[in-house]
Amino acid sequence: MKLTRMLPASCMLLSLMIPQALLAQKPTGSESPSYYNIGGVLSNNESESHFATVIAHLNFDQQYVPRGTTYYDKTIRIDKNPIKTALNVCKHLISRRVYAVVVSHEPTGDLSPAAVSYTSGFYQIPVIGISSREAAFSDKNIHVSFLRTVPPYYHQADVWLEILSHFGYTKVIIIHSSDTDGRAVLGRFQTTSQTNYDDIDVRATVESIVEFEPKLDSFSSYLMDMKTAQSRVYLLYASQEDAYVIFRDAAIHNMTEYGHIWIVTEQALSANNTPTGIIGLKLNNAENETDHIKDAIYILASAIKEMTVNETITEAPKDCDDSGVIWESGKRLFGYLKTRNIRGETGQVAFDDNGDRMYAEYDVINVHENHSFVKVGSFHYDSEKRKMRLKINDSSITWPGNTGKKPEGIMIPTHLKVLTIEEKPFVYARKLLDDEIDCADDEVVCPHFNITNGNEQEYCCKGYCIDLLKALAQRINFTYDLALSPDGQFGHYQLKNHTTGIGTTVKKEWNGLIGELVAERADLIVAPLTINPERAEFIEFSKPFKYQGITILEKKPSRSSTLVSFLQPFSNTLWILVMVSVHVVALVLYLLDRFSPFGRFKLSTTDGTEEDALNLSSAIWFAWGVLLNSGIGEGTPRSFSARVLGMVWAGFAMIIVASYTANLAAFLVLERPKTKLTGINDARLRNTMENLTCATVKGSSVDMYFRRQVELSNMYRTMEANNYDTAEQAIQDVKDGKLMAFIWDSSRLEYEASKDCELVTAGELFGRSGYGVGLQKGSPWTDAVTLAILDFHESGFMESLDKEWIFHGNVQQCEQFEKTPNTLGLKNMAGVFILVGAGIVGGIGLIIIEVVYKKHQIKKQKKMEIARHAADKWRGTIEKRKTLRASLAMQRQYNVGLNSVSKSVQSQNAEKSRYPILPPLPRTPERAWPKDKEYIVNRKNNSSGAGKPSPRYMPTYATDVSHLIV
Questions:
Q1: Which of 142, 273, 453, 578 to pair with 308, CA 20 to 30 A apart?
Q2: How far apart are CA 841 and CA 845, in angstroms?
């Protein structure tokens, strides 16, 4: 025992007896040094003495110092002037080849440790701080070789999160100064909350951030804004002086009474007016500089020992004037220091990548009456689980208002700001007219604030969701202000540029309804808001008030009612065969009737006329008449064989006509077009090469669904270019035929299909989900809204809303319309009327051609008749002259000796003059005039009746020619 007590003094004496020549000794060869000078920049004599004692003890600890290695201390007093401190480091430490520096801080300021860090870091000499806790030392761009055995102030945010999790507070207000440490606390809190707390339901979220300038005079204006927030949990980082002002003004505004929770840092806890019930932190061994000195030296020895095993340590720099010297071994030694993890005097000592102390232990302090500080818990290292644990005795805590009952930590507001969006039939939005003062009784005022131009317009809203909102407000007792979505969107992630001190960064943020709720500019969303994982990560959802899915809306394909729709019952081949059959049968009928022995037989009629035989024209007329069921007036077959064929043709015509009539009804009346698509698995949707346009609303829940589905990625890439801004535009394009398929929520599309029977939903539902009421994370209204909606489902209220707003009774009307046959319209039978019109126009055209042709033929016949009469007259004149000459010759012959017969001659001449000789009749009766034709017919009849040819001259001849005068 006596030897043990004398050991420290002996060590100190041994260190003083070491000659200076030994200190100047340099290692030879490539081996590591056998001695190491450790520098110390300390604040008082006690620390310097303890520093030397610890190093003396270290030399006898073989666990940290191997045989043949010795450590020596080199200390200087820290100066409140940082420039003097830097000069002393160069003059008294670096010149002695120190391998590391342990630095404390001067009680009146913290700039001197920074000067030591700058100076030593320039040469990559590691610096171990034992009391500096400012956030600036974590910046390795400035303090390149600085690490510390105390945690920085902003690490208290880790303990805050554990305390909030213990008490179940999920919404807080952070109050911090605008200096580096204050902002570091906020950043640490937000980063650790998102990284270490996966469960969104228990994760603490920041409702409001209050940043103030140090050296406060008043904090009242900030407190007035804090009163409007829901959270009543305040996390405070402030200096002792600023905390005094904050607590003073908070007490004036009654914000230190029951219902308000204050959790503060060490500095704020030391204020003179800390209210009763405040919870603060206090770092263990924060003021015990001697323990930190020992931990720093042993950590350094541990790092050097491991480094000498793995590599060679070169000599430390010795001259501050040589600006070009960079000690590479010092840089690597700093890396070894950061990997240390030992159990020291101040607890478990380890470092993070910034060289900051990990596993620092805190006491949880509660302020009781008479400003007494009581330890109610601790934040300590669990060696078994190798992580920090928080332990708090809840029963020993006194809360603000000097009560033992834990406050709720949140104020439940009764007047809420509710947002919605126009989406028929859930929300109908109507712009308030200029002459209107207020909305109708069934409507609610819902102004729309346009974030683009800053204009506000008054609207009136009604619909499914508006009735639901009224019922919720009445059931769970709250008032509200309703407004439309500022940008008209449901909400999706979008990239936004944010300007910071470093530069412009691109960050993803929510827009639309979700963005308003995430930014806490709204309390409630009552709209057809689909519940999906992306949104549920940032907002709360009630239980679904309507279950639905995703479906496809398309327009019913119209029947192909062309001008030749009446030809649809038969194929083109059949029509051609029918046309050919008509003429073939007509030709065969004509041939059978012509070559049959009985086909040329003429039947006499009562009126003395006979029927003409069947010619080719009559045969064609007969065949068409039988086929078209028209009356046959003339030209029927005569032979038995032809009549048999006619009966067979009549049977064929009956079958053809009956078949045509039946198919016409099937094609034009009973035809019901079906949907083009079979559902989401239709190959035409999956195949991007197919000429089929489909779309949805960009940024919507349906859009998010397609992004999540890998098997629909090809389809989504095609859809993405066609997506619309609103559902109304897409539905209108489907009606107009510009869009073939619109993919959207089934509730809306079923409503559109029930309203317009020309629209139809295709396939089964997919991506089933539900519409829910959106609330802020940790909203106190979540449970109340959910219970009210469940009660509405049980009471049938939701079913009544469906009948009133979604179906409107039109579903039965469309179903009845589907069951009744279609009626034919002009569109279906327009071709038949055009065919009749073409027949009329063709008939008129043919009669005009016939009249023109007949007139031309008559003119030609008249010319021929005139020529024929002229020729006949000339021929008659010639005959007369010939006859007269012959008569005169005969008279001259008889006048000489035949006076006795003069009287007879005169009688004959008189007879000739009385009955002149008629000119010869034409040989072709077809070219004669009608009267001549009658004359010829009568002459034939008379000839056939008498059986003898008629005389050329009808009058009887007389022998008396005495009347002729020569």
A1: 142
A2: 6
Q: Report CA 782 to chain centroid distance, whole Å.
A: 28
Q: Closest Cα partner for 125 from 302, 278, 337?
A: 337
pLDDT in tens, 71-126: 999 999 988 888 998 999 998 898 888 999 999 877 655 688 999 999 888 888 99
- pLDDT tens digits, 87-96: 999 988 988 8
The answer to whether residues 747 and 465 touch, using CB atoms and an 8 Å cutoff, is no
What's the token pair of residue 292? Answer: 């930190």
| Structure confidence at residue 198 as a pLDDT band (50, 70, 90) | low
pLDDT for 324 equals: 64
Helix orientation angle between 289-310 and 45-58, rounded to the nearest 10 degrees = 40
Contact 445, 429 (CB under 8 A): no
Predicted TM-score of the model (pTM):
0.55
Could you tell me the two tokens for 131? 């009391």
Instruction: Name residues whose C-beta falls within 8 Å of residue 720's C-beta, 6 or more positions apart in sequence.
Output: 698
Residue 790's pLDDT band (cuts 50, 70, 90): very high
> What are 5's two structure tokens?
């007590």
Say whether pLDDT at 588 is over 60. yes
Q: Which of 510, 501, 499, 276 is nearest to 371 (CA)?
A: 276
CA–CA dist 635, 448 (Å, integer): 85
* CB-CB contact of 161 with 196 (8 Å): yes
Q: Give the residue among 207, 146, 144 at the shortest CA–CA distance from 174.
A: 207
Q: What percent of the chain has pLDDT over 90?
A: 31
pLDDT level of residue 286 (50, 70, 90 thresholds): confident
Distance (Å, whole) CA 743 – CA 557: 17
From residue 384, alpha-carbon distances to 159, 380, 387 in Å are 20, 12, 8
Q: Show the tokens assigned to 428.
A: 């109908």
Q: What is the pLDDT of residue 660?
A: 81
Task: Round to whole Å and give the CA distance between 110 and 324.
Answer: 29
For residue 547, the cross-strand partners are 770
Mean pLDDT estimate for the chain:
80
What distance in Å separates the CA atoms of residue 733 and residue 553, rounded to the nearest whole number?
11
DSSP string of 696-741? -BTTSHHHHHHHH-GGGHHHHHHHHTT-BSSHHHHHHHHHHTS-SE
End-to-end alpha carbon distance in the chain: 209
List beta partners, residue 771: 530, 546
pLDDT of residue 225 exceeding 90, the answer is no
**What order of strands is seen across the sheet that includes strand 362-368?**
205-212, 171-177, 233-237, 261-264, 279-283, 362-368, 372-382, 387-392
Task: Outline where 781-927 has alpha helix (H).
Answer: 782-795, 797-801, 810-819, 826-897, 902-914
The helix (run of H) or strand (run of E) holding residue 955 is none
The pLDDT tens digits of the residues spanning 889-906 come to: 888 877 765 555 455 545
Query: Which pair of tokens denotes residue 439?
Result: 């909305």
Question: Buried b vs exposed e over 496-524: b needs ≥16 C-beta within 10 Å?
Answer: eeeeeeeeeeeeeebbbbbbbbbebebbb
